[in-house]
Amino acid sequence: MEDEEGANRIRRHHRRLLPRKVPTPMNMTSNASENSHATLLARLNSADSDFENAEVLIIDGPSKYVNARVPRRTSNKALVQTVRGGTSLPRYHALRWNTNQESLPSPLQMTERRRGTGFRQVISPQNFGIVLLGGFTTLLKIGGLLLARTFCGDIWPYVQVLSVCALSLDPLKSVVPKVKNIDIGPLHALAGPVLGLTVARPLVRWGLPDLYRTAKFWRRLLPIYCGYMKTKYTAIRKPQEDQQKMWAVRHEWGGEKVHRLVLDLSGFYVKSAQILATKADFVPEPWIRRLSNHFDNAPPRSFPEVEKSIQKELGSCPQRSSLPVDSKGLVPLDAVFLNVETTCIAAASIAQVHGAELKDGKRVVIKVQHLGMEVVMNSDLRNIVWVAKFLEGQLPFDLGPVVREIQKTIPLEFDFEREMYFMSKISSNLEVGGFDRIVCPKPVVEFCAKRLLVMQRLEGIPFTRIIHPHAPDELKRRIPEVVSMVEYLVHAFGQMFLVDGVFHADPHAGNLLLLDDGRLGLIDFGQSKELDNGVRKKLAIMIVALYRNDEGEIARALKGLGMVFKDASGGEVADSTLAVMARILFDTCYVQEATVSPMSNESILRNTPLTTFNQALWLVVRAMVILRGLCFGLKMDVSACTIWRPYAIKALEELEHISD
User: Fold this and answer.
1) 495: DSSP letter
2) How many CB atoms lie within 10 A of CB 463?
3) Sequence-ordered strand ranges (E) for 75-138
4) Cβ proximity of 365 and 354 under 8 Å
5) How far apart are CA 644 and CA 200, in angstroms?
6) CA dihedral in degrees (99, 100, 106, 107; nearest 10)?
7) Which alpha helices (H) appear in 105-127, and where do they start and end?
8) Residue 574, Cβ neighbours under 10 Å: how many?
9) Is 357 helix (H, G, I), strand (E, B) or coil?
10) Closest CA relative to residue 55, chosen from 69, 41, 66, 42
11) Its pTM surpasses 0.85
12) Which residues of the chain have a pLDDT value below 50?
């Protein structure tokens, strides 16, 4: 009776599925050294001194057992060695017993003792080190599994299936087939952590979405980084021709990996992809080909979700007092629009655009912000900070000021009222400046809100479709018009940068339209900035110095803008080198050094790293980088400094009273 009750208590306390009855005695050596990862539980009957042998119930592993006879006065260690045929002791043997005892307690005595002393009996000073080691071992298992999940994601489903098969639980035997010809013994130790990670994933995704997104980002980024580092160090010892082949294969692989990362995570990573896609001068062609799809082709949200967002934001627009509102505070769409297109025109990182028609028949577009995107973007910005720290010392320039400016400007994109202000301001400035061939959409102010923009619809074709490598012939025939409009746009940026001090900072091909009447449509003013007069004057000085091609004057102007370079060998940086750096940062003309990736050993930044960056100029440099990439992609060699000289002189005359 005691044996049966003891076995039942072991079942309840240790979650072991043991037989209902204690097995009959059998040969001790029948199961000797069968399971190297066993947990030993023994029951030694208190026998009279006349007996030479005592009966022991040994549970070896999750379900193996043997009933053996051993000498009564056998120590715990000797008992283990005897039962296991003289092999090494099990990993967790005798965790709860005193090894100085000559006999072991019965299951009934053991469970009664546990119930009486509670957790202190399990974690005692004698076995604390063993428990700590076991916990550390479990953490190592989980860490190893996470690395395997990161770098060998394709085999992870097989590991999950084999882990389930490795569980020797009676309820699973009827549904889990026995794996033949495969030794799954080693998976016994990993089955628990594998299944734990599998179950934890949906729970973390639901309960801690920020942590889940961060882990997902790094799980995708690290293999890309390690892949490129591997190619970098293995290609050094190869001939030049083999190096090119290796890098071609790696760039195809990397472009696809980055594309899928952006496609899966969206958010701020779409912005990063858009910048990289404009850098045709040094970003590999496979990356350009894939990342150019992210200008306006982000995965859209479903229309019911978009409809709810529009209805909610209409409830806070200036015209809300004259609009009907239901019990949930939502304004029906038919109160404002005759119709709204359910298929979006374009989808981007934080919003998507739908065509619509107002009740007065005016054709408009609705730009509505995705629900919950601010939380996602904050998570992405933290990841970008960690990436900057991770790459610290590996890049020939400091990402810190750039990241700080990004942290400052990106959240401003969520304020559509601010975007409406810049849209109207830049449109007015360009009109006054005589740039009537550039059209900015006019907002319908009465229906705009902080997360909703209703504006004039511009009928045209995005530049991305015209300059795409696989564009149809009828669109490719319009490339000369695009070239003409890009040069015209460079003129307009001279007006925006130097005269007005208010500029559009995101002029990539997805935000440029070739309108039906041949004019240029400029859209998406979320990333716009207003320069203070001091920065505007220093920028004008730099443009004039670049036009004159005076290396000493350029070096002084660069220092005045807060850009500091140093020589990697410890000497003085030559003015000629600083002139090249300035032209890369503030001109759109072709510069050989600008076509070399900053990661390359041949990069000029390797020998002359940028140590101090004026973060107030980040959006200026960003716009210049995008314009240069656009010109390079269209095979244009246009010098912005030559075009901007009249605007710079005009700005200097206006700002003459401002001290440097």
Assistant:
1) I
2) 27
3) none
4) yes
5) 58
6) -30
7) 107-117, 119-122
8) 13
9) strand
10) 69
11) no
12) 1-2, 10-11, 13-123, 169-173, 176, 179-181
